[in-house]
Amino acid sequence: GRGSRLVGSGSAVPKHVISNEELSKFVDTSDEWISLRTGIRNRRVLGEDESLTTLSVDASRKALEMANVKPEEVDLLLLCTSTPDDLFGSAPQVQKLLGCHNALAFDLTAACSGFVLGLVTATRFIRGGGYKNVLVVGADALSRYVDWTDRGTCILFGDASGALLLQAATDDQDSLLGFDLRSDGNGHKHLHVTVDDVDSSPNGAETNGSTFKLPGKATYECLQMNGKEVFKFAVRAVPQVVEGALQEAGLTGDNVDWLLLHQANQRILDSVSDRLHIPSEKVISNLANYGNTSAASIPLALDEAVRSGKVKAGDVVATAGFGAGLTWGSAIVRW
Ligand code: ACO
Fold first, then answer.
1. ipTM score here?
2. Where does the Beta-ketoacyl-[acyl-carrier-protein] synthase III C-terminal domain start and stop, copy by copy (predicted)?
3. Considering the entire predicted model, what is its pTM?
């Protein structure tokens, strides 16, 4: 058997909380506006003694403890993030600090869809053979890339990390029951953090007497978003992939115990669950406390729901991520 099972979850958030109240002291907004339009009340932001790596180590350690698996038993660590501590990737640092010295570790970048893509990738590694314990970590720190003077975006995001442990099973059954993954670069203009144009630079030099300028050190623009377009995309595209993934799993909306969407905005969660005819009692939402934590939002919410006893062994959880790229996708899993 080469089935892949979900056996552990963990999560970690920064200590520092920024409430809507506090935000309204430095941008022209209000608790009322933010709560009404998004459902968000608080978000966490990385402090000086914290990093994406340290949060991810904490989240991963909790997942390993839940599953009673030792760090050295981990074969693969996928860090799904768009905001690593190092441009070359942070997964090997997480691996080192966790003590997973037998694991291959690398980053996977797909914005808010990263975790769903990571889950499917991990399952494929286990199915392919040779990988028994795989940590899938979703982590982001968009606080580093938002313009804290832009009320249209800075109110939405928070930092966090969440981890799931997948394990090779003795039988052939997967926890991943079905999936549907998509991307479309045409929508890139609606949501991006692009490298700034770099013109004349301190280390620029003329080559061969020509006017060619060597590139300077790159910096990134702040996160740019057309909120209305992203909203429309999400409510149109997400129900389609959830239905696609359910169909692949041989299930319908009636079989779903929990709908766990990327935690972007409560109005998106409401609209998608409406379109899927899934009642609000089955919709997992913790965005009031953390805002949009990008690739971390699904494992963070799942971990909380598992630890609080809401999600129980055997429950079918329909997850869906969506965001920049554009990328979007759904994975149906059995906890
Ligand atoms: N406080 C007060 N007023 C505000 C704020 C704010 N924080 N932000 C915008 N406004 C104002 C606008 O200036 C505008 O004023 P005007 O009518 O005088 O021009 C008015 O409120 C309405 O603004 P809209 O942008 O039209 O508001 P909308 O209802 O679309 O809500 C929001 C904006 C919350 C951003 C919404 O569009 C949304 O949630 N979109 C989805 C965004 C999302 O989920 N992005 C993440 C995707 S995941 C990823 O990959 C990162």
1. 0.93
2. 246-335
3. 0.95
